[in-house]
Write the structure tokens for this entry.
Amino acid sequence: MKVSDLGEFGLIARLAEELSAQTAAAGDLFVGIGDDAAVWRGAEGAHIATTDTMVAGVHFPGEGLPWRDLGWKSLATNVSDIAAMGGTPEYALVTLALPGDFSVEDVIELYAGLGEAGRAYGVTVAGGDVVSSPVFVITVSLSGRADLDESGQPRLLRRDAASAGDLVAVTGYLGGSAGGLRILMNAADAPGEARERLIEAHLRPQARLDAGRAALAAGVRCAIDLSDGLMQDLGHICQASGLGATVWRDKVPVNPWLSHAVAPDQALRLAVAGGEDYELLFIGTEEQVLEVRRQVALPVTIVGEMVVDPQQRVQLLDEDGREVELLAAGWDHFARGERRS
Amino acid sequence: MKVSDLGEFGLIARLAEELSAQTAAAGDLFVGIGDDAAVWRGAEGAHIATTDTMVAGVHFPGEGLPWRDLGWKSLATNVSDIAAMGGTPEYALVTLALPGDFSVEDVIELYAGLGEAGRAYGVTVAGGDVVSSPVFVITVSLSGRADLDESGQPRLLRRDAASAGDLVAVTGYLGGSAGGLRILMNAADAPGEARERLIEAHLRPQARLDAGRAALAAGVRCAIDLSDGLMQDLGHICQASGLGATVWRDKVPVNPWLSHAVAPDQALRLAVAGGEDYELLFIGTEEQVLEVRRQVALPVTIVGEMVVDPQQRVQLLDEDGREVELLAAGWDHFARGERRS
């Protein structure tokens, strides 16, 4: 069987099975494969670790890249995973696989961007590895910590902690990153500031550490960061929590700059399925969501609710409660022909 | 400037500079770029983290691979880095970048090998990432811990802790991995058990956790694992410690099976420059080395000594004290045309 037959998420599930069969009882592992990050018990508190890889020609164009932005993004996306657990990032390892004729100046630029993101999020790049490769690949692994509660369990935002009737909320605006990617790939254009803001949304995503902490403090226990798109990432929460979800089309906070670049129906599609916005999606009671809204400087929008559904579907509904069909509900690195970004 | 002009180690040094200029004071970082692993202060004790990447067609042939062995090796080489710091490994993240037509069965085999190494070394695979890529790349990042001494400093085996007059010792036998690689690449052959043992040395390296711990307990404070070859890895110690080193040719513990596969002079060359043996090289007083020898089940051989040398050379001497010239002193992923393995 080919990896593409199983798809990215099918493969990860299969590997998680394999490992649980292989691994001796891992009593100190709080969260293993299948959430934004892994969490295990430390001497005091809990350790969080996550890793993300970007491949030239797959996750970004192989040429003409602003390497400083790529450095920023490769660290910020990992910080976003730790934000989505409600943790605090601390130390990163950076691995570069690159061809021998790769420009040293470009690597230095990349590291300058890593350093900028490190300062922005309080992360120290502590080491890594550099190897030769026919294609450029950057892997960042990031570790951090979470607090423990009185009973010795870590205080976390997990994917499996949603309850039916909970509200679904997101920070910021959606679809800007996908719009910026289309502009960078000459598949769309926008005038002046709109162009700039959309490209920035794609190249310089912001990790929502403050929102993650505020959500935890408000009693929220379920979240994910929006890397694959609202519909698909909410689908991960549904699967992990054994529920379905409803998203109200008219509530989706579509990035206002998108209207300068694409048609309204396409803007909605990019907002719910575009991916790489790295906003925080969290699930909680109305009271909790309103408390988060009071605590963070970002817009916090209620976009839907969790429902009982044995099929664990995510349904996008119009103003009359009718389901809206989208051509693609998100990205899968292997199962779909479409490239992620 | 191209990466190949600077070489792997030149690039790493340049990036370390860039980061030290970029990073705000990282008071809790004990060891950053330039050792086997990074080390930072935790609530109790110190955290150690390391990462290693293997690229198909660069670090191993792209086809006909025993994937289970590759899984073993990709974790064992990281454990070896933590052994060379005197630490204890705990949790690993595994990132796979692979083409969509890659076989799922091969990925499962790879994970079975990761699981075997995990059980052997007490490591839990806690998560990771799977992405699409035109070429197969596996990155393992591994975290663990080190103890703190009474003054709150971590007890570590570092590269920069050698003193002139100290002895240079290695565990096990050298050159077997390079011999096995030559057999796998049909550049050499050996009969029966020799063939098997040499291939095993290449595909199933053993991380020397016990030797690392025994060295620490004996008071040793300087070590490295042999990934690039004795001459080159000892060179890293010389650079970090500001010393030179002498290696006595007749003391090098050449893998006894090598004589079945290659000529004697080639066996010596593979033993001092072949790479990927993952034995522990450590530096200490005679008393310390003898204590380590008493404590571990492996052979422990004194192969040379640290000397004052402003040029920080590693010299291989024959029985009459004359320097022996080798064609290549080790591997550099970029600076040399030769592939590492």
Remarks:
- Chain A touches chain B through 84 residues (CB under 8 Å).
- The mean pLDDT of chain A is 88.
